[in-house]
């Protein structure tokens, strides 16, 4: 499949903005005779062809990636987008930053539509990343907002 230089350049730009320079540099550096065409294809097709489309904001696209990868059990991609979303600059809409409230809503929605095990594993993956980034949320009182009868 022929890949146009402009598409590759724009795809790399988008990929760097969303996943960060370090991740993309590592992917490019690790290109070899087996995976180079695959790397070019996803950079052009996914990162330019899809992520450059005007129909959705990048943050919405990242949220969709989280829900879909959780539903499909693609945890390596889910973890990548959690980590890079948390590290992204919230002031840069092209970086598609995430906050804990959004992640919580994505996992609640995912649990309802893709099953509690997907939501549960997603929550465990998020907590793993939060611990690695030293961003663990504060403890919460389980019964604080619960109706009195449930206590």
Structure description:
With 151 residues, the chain is mainly alpha-helical. It has two domains: 1-55, no CATH class; 56-134, AhpD-like (Up-down Bundle), CATH 1.20.1290.10. It is built from seven helices and no strands. The radius of gyration is 18 Å and the shape is elongated.
The tally of helices reads: 7
Chain-averaged pLDDT: 95
> What's the CATH C level of the largest domain?
Mainly Alpha
Supply Rg.
18 Å
CATH topology of the largest domain: AhpD-like
Number of strands: 0
| Tally of domains | 2
Largest sheet: none
N-to-C SSE series? Answer: HHHHHHH
Name the CATH superfamily classification of the largest domain. Answer: AhpD-like
Shape: elongated
CATH architecture of the largest domain: Up-down Bundle
Task: Summarize the model shown.
This protein is an all-alpha fold and 151 residues long. It contains seven helices and no strands. It starts with a helix and ends in a 19-residue tail after the last helix.
């Amino acid at each position: 499949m022929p890949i146009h230089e402009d598409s590759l350049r724009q795809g790399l730009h988008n990929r760097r903005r969303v996943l960060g320079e370090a991740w993309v540099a590592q992917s490019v550096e690790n290109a070899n005779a087996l995976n180079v065409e695959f790397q070019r294809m996803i950079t052009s097709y996914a990162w330019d062809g899809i992520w450059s489309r005007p129909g959705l904001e990048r943050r919405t696209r990242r949220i969709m990636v989280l829900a879909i990868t959780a539903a499909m059990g693609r945890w390596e991609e889910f973890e990548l987008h959690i980590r890079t979303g948390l590290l992204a600059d919230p002031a840069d809409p092209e970086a598609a930053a995430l906050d804990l409230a959004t992640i919580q809503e994505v996992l609640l929605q995912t649990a309802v539509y893709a099953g509690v095990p997907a939501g549960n594993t997603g929550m465990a993956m998020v907590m793993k990343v939060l611990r690695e980034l030293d961003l663990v949320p504060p403890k919460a009182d389980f019964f604080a907002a619960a109706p009195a009868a449930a206590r």
